[in-house]
């Protein structure tokens, strides 16, 4: 399945990243900071979608609770910042550690089930964390918690929106590279093999549960980093980051872009969030249009947008 | 702990439980027979409540509005089935989640366009708006008792329909092997539409009856949808009996937990800790229950299908 060096998929990926890298240039030249924030948010959700795709696309495990890790990462940053921690290294490190531990706990229990039950148990855990966040009255409860200021990370000064933007872009690029390495490794092959035929994987002497748990933890950790970035970008954390509709949206991004592809979820995030913005400028009832579009995508574009961009060999 | 308060809260829990059962019965049948994950089931509940509000404003009568709202929701359900959902039956669960998620967005916005963004209110009929004294010192609203009665009647009807009639036999046969049923000359597509319509009507009934107790607004079906899924997963997907047991269990655990967990915690911890943790633990309780049940019975209490 080795793809040629110059495939449509590679050209599209490089083109996409080049365009994303040029957004700050555009927004500075035409003094349109709106686009900078919009695409920073798009890339953060792309990161979350890429992380979900590792378990959903490659692992065949439909997690309907990935917003939970987004929330855990964001709250780790928000709560520590509230107590006066301003080292970004510590904040993001804590977010990564916290989401990894939560993913380990949720994954260890949820992976005992499968199919529809797995969908629902991941949703149930996400709901628990949602209500936990709502009840944290000391940290804003329902209203959320503002974060006073952004710190610095090595050479990056996060008070600069442009520097934060490039940091997010780098994080997304690293996540895609990590995904590329995982998918190509023996570990990735076992994960995908167990998706297609679990019984055969077991017969070969492999224990799918362990591979899936590791994938689940990696996925939750990357998603937690996305949450930390989101909290840093918006200077705010809120239980709404963990709402179940948010988990649904991240699934939509993955499926819209193309499951079990690397760049697909990024495309899905870009298209969904930009489409939302465009429709919202047309009418306040934009969901009336977005809903049927999603239905049509499911009915007619079965391989997602990436399948269409990358062609047969993508 | 006050036993009279416990009785009232248990009845409130039972009322929530039968309401959840009306929703769960349709959802679990649709999943068990058509193998369809229908997130838009909560939207049908919402549509039922909106129809109730609209027809009551139009006719001025509660009963007439109820009699119109249920078949109207049934028609909406059948239309959705014919236009979209029947194309999703042989797709994997993920496509179904995504497609019906799109339908939720559509319906939530559609009711805002038709009825405006403000919440609507439905008044209950004069005859049912009083209270009865169950035990000395424990008055209870008549309307809630009526809901419990209607819910139990529907449960009895469904049990009769599924186990004692020819239609029920086909439904059960369709659940275990739809291809074989079709090969025996049964119009399986018609059966699917029929089952979906039944589920939609029950969801509409739940929405219409809940309307006087809640404010009718867009997205009111989203929260209840999650609760319904919790119910069918605990009960075991495809099992009506499981749905009933789990609905009552979830209703009572949720209601009684919300009422008494903060009080119980206050006995153990100091007031501050209890006040902070009580409501949080109470809202998490049913999800903890579901996770615990799935750990020990990964297919729910009465489930056979995954």
Features:
heterodimer, A: 314 residues, two-stranded antiparallel sheet, 4 strands, B: 306 residues, mainly alpha, ABC transporter involved in vitamin B12 uptake, BtuC, 11 helices, 2 strands, 3% strand, globular
Word description of this protein:
The complex is a heterodimer of chains A (314) and B (306). Chain A has one domain. Helix content of chain A is 73%, strand content 3%. Chain A has helices spanning 8-29, 33-58, 67-82, 88-110, 115-135, 161-184, 186-196, 198-203, 208-234, 244-257, 264-282, 287-300, 304-310; strands spanning 145-146, 152-153, 156-157, 236-237. Chain A has a two-stranded antiparallel sheet with strand order 1-4. In chain A, helix 2 packs across helix 10 and helix 10 (244-257) packs parallel to helix 13 (304-310). The model of chain A has no long low-confidence stretch (mean pLDDT 89). With 306 residues, chain B is mostly helical. Chain B has a single domain (9-127, 134-296), classed as ABC transporter involved in vitamin B12 uptake, BtuC, CATH 1.10.3470. Chain B has a two-stranded antiparallel ribbon with strand order 1-2. In chain B, helix 2 packs antiparallel against helix 3 (62-83) and helix 3 (62-83) runs antiparallel to helix 8 (188-210). The longest helix of chain B is centred in the first third of the chain and has 32 residues, at 3-34. The termini of chain B are far apart. The model of chain B has no long low-confidence stretch (mean pLDDT 88). Classes of the chains: A mainly alpha (314), B mainly alpha (306). The interface between A and B is large, with 46 and 47 residues.
């Amino acid at each position: 399945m080795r793809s040629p060096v110059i495939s449509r998929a590679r050209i599209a990926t490089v083109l996409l990243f080049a365009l994303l890298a040029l957004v700050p240039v555009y927004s500075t030249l035409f003094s349109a900071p709106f686009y900078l924030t919009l695409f920073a948010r798009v890339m953060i959700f792309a990161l979350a979608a890429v992380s979900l795709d590792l378990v959903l696309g490659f692992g065949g495990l439909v997690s309907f609770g990935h917003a939970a890790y987004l929330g855990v990462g964001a709250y780790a940053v928000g709560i520590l910042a509230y107590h006066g921690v301003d080292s970004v290294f510590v904040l993001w490190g804590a977010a990564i550690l916290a989401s990894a531990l939560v993913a380990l706990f949720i994954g260890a229990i949820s992976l005992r089930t499968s199919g529809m039950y797995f969908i629902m148990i991941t949703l149930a855990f996400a709901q628990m964390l949602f209500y936990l966040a709502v009840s944290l009255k000391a940290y804003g409860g329902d209203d959320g918690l503002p974060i006073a200021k952004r710190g610095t990370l090595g050479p990056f000064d996060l008070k600069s929106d442009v520097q934060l933007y490039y940091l997010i872009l780098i994080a997304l690029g690293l996540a895609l590279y990590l995904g590329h390495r995982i998918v190509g490794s023996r570990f990735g092959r076992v994960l995908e093999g167990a998706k297609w035929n679990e019984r055969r994987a077991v017969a070969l002497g492999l224990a799918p549960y362990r591979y899936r748990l590791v994938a689940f933890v990696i996925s939750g950790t990357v998603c937690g980093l996305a949450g930390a970035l989101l909290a840093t970008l918006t200077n705010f954390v809120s239980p709404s980051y963990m709402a179940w509709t948010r988990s649904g949206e991240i699934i939509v991004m993955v499926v819209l872009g193309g499951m079990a592809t690397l760049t697909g979820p990024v495309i899905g995030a870009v298209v969904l969030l930009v489409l939302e913005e465009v429709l919202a400028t047309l009418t306040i009832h934009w969901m009336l249009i977005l809903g049927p579009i999603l239905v049509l995508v499911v009915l007619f574009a079965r391989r997602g947008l990436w399948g269409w961009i990358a062609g047969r060999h993508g | 702990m006050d036993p009279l308060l416990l009785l009232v809260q248990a009845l409130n829990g039972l009322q929530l439980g039968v309401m959840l059962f009306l929703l769960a019965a349709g959802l679990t049948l649709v999943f068990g027979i058509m193998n369809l994950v229908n997130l838009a089931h909560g939207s049908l509940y919402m549509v039922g409540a909106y129809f109730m509000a609209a027809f009551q404003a139009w006719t001025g009568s509660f009963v007439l509005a109820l009699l119109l709202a249920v078949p109207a929701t049934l028609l909406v359900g059948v239309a959705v089935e014919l236009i979209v959902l029947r194309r999703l039956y042989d797709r994997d669960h993920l496509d179904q989640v995504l497609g019906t998620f799109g339908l939720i967005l559509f319906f939530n916005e559609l009711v805002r366009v038709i009825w405006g963004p403000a919440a609507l209110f439905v008044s209950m009929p004069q005859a049912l708006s009083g209270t009865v004294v169950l035990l000395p010192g424990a008055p209870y609203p008549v309307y809630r008792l009526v809901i419990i009665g209607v819910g139990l009647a529907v449960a009895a009807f469904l049990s009769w329909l599924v186990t004692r009639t020819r239609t029920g036999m086909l439904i059960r046969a369709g659940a275990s092997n739809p291809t074989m049923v079709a090969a025996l000359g049964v119009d399986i597509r018609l059966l699917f539409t029929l089952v979906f319509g039944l589920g939609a009507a029950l969801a509409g009934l739940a929405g219409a009856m809940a309307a006087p107790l809640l404010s009718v607004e867009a997205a009111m079906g989203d929260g209840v949808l999650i609760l319904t899924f919790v119910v069918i997963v605990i009960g075991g997907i495809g099992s009506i009996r499981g749905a009933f047991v789990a609905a009552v269990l979830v209703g009572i655990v949720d209601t009684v937990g919300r009422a008494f967990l903060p009080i119980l915690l206050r006995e153990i911890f100091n007031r501050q800790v209890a006040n902070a943790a009580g409501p949080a633990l109470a809202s998490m309780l049913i999800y903890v229950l579901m996770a615990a049940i799935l750990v020990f019975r990964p297919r729910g209490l009465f489930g056979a299908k995954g």
